[in-house]
Amino acid sequence: MRIFSGIQPTGRKHLGNFIGAIAHYVSSQQRGEGIFCIVDLHAITVAYDPGELRERLHDTTAILLAAGLDPDRCILFRQSDVREHTELTWLLSSVAELGRLQRMHQFRDKSLSQRELVSAGLLLYPVLQAADVLAYRAEEVPVGEDQREHLELMRDVARRFNARFGGGEEVLLVPEHRIPEVGARIMDLQDPTRKMSTTGGSEQGTVYVLDEPKTIEKKVRSAVTDSGSEVRCGPDKPGVSNLIEILAAVRRVDPAAVEAEFAQSRYGELKEAVASEVVDYLAPVRERYARLRADEAALESILEGGAGRARAIAAQTLLEVRERMGLGGARRALGGAPSGMGDTVSG
Ligand code: ATP
Ligand code: MG
């Protein structure tokens, strides 16, 4: 079983990222071959600072390692180190439907909030994301609920490619998303109708993985709740539902179990439990982070090792895609690696 997921190098990863994605990357290492990519090429589709990008990339790498990704058990790498991603993006853009890209929610939301240029890269973002996953013929993609639409587009791109160029074969594997049942959409604590987000949320409503315990307590205590006093989930109770969902995800139980436990409690008691359990949940990550982040040479060496292993897999896919699309000179023997590629898959 091959599992792939990408995460943006925004550095300040939040509780939503952690519960909805990172925690699942960590546990998936038990189930299969995990390939995790820090997607700096995606990050350049909105306004950014080039010097900052490298810093934030190291921050994100250290957070993932601190959370429990183990470079001996998974492949962890930087997207821009593996050029196959960019080449495959162009090749797949010929089977990606323009109208569908224009209708993507993320494109519409992010282009509205861009103050300057709305780049063509922002429109092509989901094609790059399709290339990320399809290059590895990954079977499973753990992501949060907000990525459902992009995953559907990716599946469509793979199917169209196979129909157009596959000659009856599944050259590109159509991946399955793995969206968690609990915690796939953690909401902003100050505005529980919007997802907790790196770029779009409120500072007070976003709990960062690296926040100090006191800051986390303050943010949770000041979370917006709903009218009434009953602790239960429901569409009329977005704030309380979100707190119940967070506690359920952190405890790895069903939200109904949390509801039952707090049925006789007030909002304040629920908030206290969420605050203290989120603090305990994130504390070990923050502690390990400080040590890991300090050694940039070690981080770079992990990323380099990961890139070598990733490239070996992606290059094979590109060879076949180019062949099927009639690009470059015809290959003499199918399945043979071109000379000079060097890397082999290890681990
Ligand atoms: P942005 O808001 O700028 O898109 P982000 O907060 O979504 O940033 P990403 O790096 O794009 O951060 O997302 C990494 C992973 O976290 C993705 O799998 C995404 O689906 C998941 N994720 C993001 N926000 C949430 C959330 N609020 N709840 C659960 N999962 C989330
Ligand atoms: Mg996102």
List the helices and strands and how they pair.
Layout: E1 2-7, H1 15-28, E2 33-38, H2 40-43, H3 50-67, E3 74-78, H4 84-93, H5 98-103, H6 105-113, H7 120-134, E4 140-142, H8 148-165, E5 176-178, H9 213-221, H10 238-251, H11 255-261, H12 267-294, H13 296-325
Parallel strand pairs: 1-2, 2-3, 4-5
Helix pairs in contact: 3-12, 4-7, 4-13, 7-8, 9-12, 10-11, 10-12
The structure holds adenosine-5'-triphosphate (ATP) and magnesium ion.
What does this structure look like?
This protein has helices at residues 15-28, 40-43, 50-67, 84-93, 98-103, 105-113, 120-134, 148-165, 213-221, 238-251, 255-261, 267-294, 296-325; strands at residues 2-7, 33-38, 74-78, 140-142, 176-178. The radius of gyration is 21 Å and the shape is globular. Helix content is 52%, strand content 7%. With 347 residues, the protein is mainly alpha-helical. The chain has a three-stranded parallel sheet with strand order 1-2-3, sandwiched between helices. A two-stranded parallel ribbon has the order 4-5. Mean pLDDT is 94; it is low at 339-347. The longest helix is centred in the C-terminal third of the chain and has 30 residues, at 296-325. It has 13 helices and five strands. Helix 4 (84-93) packs parallel to helix 13 (296-325), helix 9 runs antiparallel to helix 12 and helix 10 crosses helix 11. Residues 7-8, 16-17, 19-21, 143-144, 146-147, 184-186, 195-200 line the site of adenosine-5'-triphosphate.
